[in-house]
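lol so apparently i was supposed to do this last week
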Amino acid sequence: MKHRATPPPTTPFFRPKQLLTLLCLALLGLQARAEEIKSPNGQLTLNFDVQQGGVPTYRLRYKGREVIKTSKLGLELKGSTSLQTGFTQTDKQTRSFDETWTPVWGESKTIRNHYNELAVTLTQPETQRTMRVRFRVFDDGLGFRYEFPRQPKLDYFTIKEERTQFALAGDHKAFWLPGDYDTQEYSTVTSKLSEVRGLMKSAVTGNASQTPFSATGVQTPLMLKSQDGLYINIHEAALIDYSCMHLELDDKTMTLESHLTPDAAGDKGLIQTPANSPWRTVIVSDKAGDILLSKLVLNLNEPTKFKDVSWIKPVKYVGVWWEMITGKGTWSYTNMENIKLDSVDFQKVTPNGTHAANNQRVKQYIDFAAQHGFDAVLVEGWNIGWEDWFGKHKDYVFDFVTPYPDFNVQELNRYAQSKNVRIIMHHETSGSVRNYERHLDTAFQFMNKYGYNAVKTGYVGDIVPLGHHHYDQWVNNHYQYVLEKAAEHKIMVNGHEAVRPTGLARTFPNLIGNEAARGTEYESFGGNNADHTTILPFTRLIGGPMDYTPGIFQTRISTFNPKNNSFVHSTLTRQLALYVTMYSPLQMAADMIEHYNQHLDAFQFIKDVAVDWDDTKVLEAEPGDYITYARKAKGKSSWFVGSTCDENGRTSKIDLSFLDRGKKYVATIYADSPDAHYEKNPQAYQIRKLNVTSKTKLTQLCAPGGGYAISILEAGK
Ligand code: NOJ
Ligand code: CA
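anyway here it is w/ 1-deoxynojirimycin bound
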């Protein structure tokens, strides 16, 4: 069904009955009113209208072109009249807002938050309930949310489904993931919206926990491109005490509708007023690069209330990790099966000889980190329980405080700190959320005692208690509880398998990373598509930074584990580019240290590259094809450029006009050799140095599945 604006009456004459109705409506203040606001630069226009039957609708245009056609707003409630119809507009407020704020860490030194706002109050006379819809129109897009003030007739309610529509203007090209209540670890499919249904089955690949829900359900951030070149991104901001939104596509009308993640009872939200929904966001531009530079999602989150943020710092790290992911080593200390945690004395059992998190190996990593200026070493598999850690729906799977006998927690932390390096804690929960919450205080006190200041959390497998989903309201509240508890202990958090970010790091800047997409680990489980990293910045990264774990130099895994034939779908120098193109204040050099020692010339880039930035430019970008960024290091004059392209390869043409005029710089270019190829010849690279200024223009090859990285340092510095 198409939703059209009700045409205004064309005849000047009214029949008596109509006149009476109109009069009544006017008297009661019930008449439909159309509202319009524009973005500060006037290019975006938002219309709001209450249509026949009291149905709230909105519409969004960009430079006069339809982005979202007239679309319905509202929610269906469980056991109660819906909040979809029977509304009258009883109030409206408008305002303009303009502030510039300074993030604790980020892609630029300051961020401008500039919008025009419209808040309409809607009343259902029949039920005496009120809700507000607040719209903020920025130059780069729209955010809107539902607000439910405290009121006698709407104190508690249960959401059956949110019915927010996004009626698209055409059969756009879409970069989509299958809608799923438990995972985002899928390859992105690029297709027309009308092709989603036919491709869904093959798009749903295996995962330790997954619940796809329909033939046309997709996830956000959803990236779209219209035939006439509009780039549109739909996501949400400030997902707090609410369930994660997916989008259900009506492929006849090209209308997307919100689809919330259900909890164990099948409910989609337990709300007590006053309450707000998260913001629904639509970023739009006719330039792809503007989508990458948008700060709309962050701006729609609340400023942090943390008074002291001095303990939150970007982190560059190495880790005892890739050897387990690739199957060369193990997380577990023994080969026992079916263990009960408190009934095994690990001092007395036979070790398997493959346990990677042992004192000697960890010290090698600490030495390497110290030698090359890294902040930290992640160590996974340090604690008891990995023999039997997932797929069993166990409740008590880890205690988070007991190390295996060959991991001396006190000595290793002392050793690391004596070299100015920290060990990153690892808390794999195996999805057993209750168990984690039970141990959380003790686990964080344990971290404080030994001097850990960051934790990587993980939620592999189905959520226990069973029936809950990784993205439902109750579990989202768990992730937030962990963040808040961590902050009390001055601990930074990097959450894997948790809900995808929605800009919450503005409010909780200790959330320095998330996974919530197919990371580098999948290169060891069959591979990521060669265009994967040309898409993620347009999709997953719109919500916040990703712990993508780049930097794999030995892309052929069989060279060190003959049983694993998987390979990394990337050239070596593209792995360098990812430190610039995949923005994160938390960056891992994920390969084993032996592989870095074989390519110390290329490794120099990872040592030099910044993890925090004063400025960011997009030099070229097209989702699915290529992305080239330039970023200025925080508090320094140096710049770093990264470029990644798809399986076809290309020649990139950039100019360095972002450099300070009149200054001289030395550029070091780490690039694919002409015969490089992500599969056939991934380690063929060339490094060259040249003097550059803001007038320099560069033509640079990207091999198929390749990329290049450039460090640009001010001459003489
Ligand atoms: C999945 C995470 O993404 C990965 O980084 C981690 O090593 C394993 N879970 C084990 O926790
Ligand atoms: Ca994962």
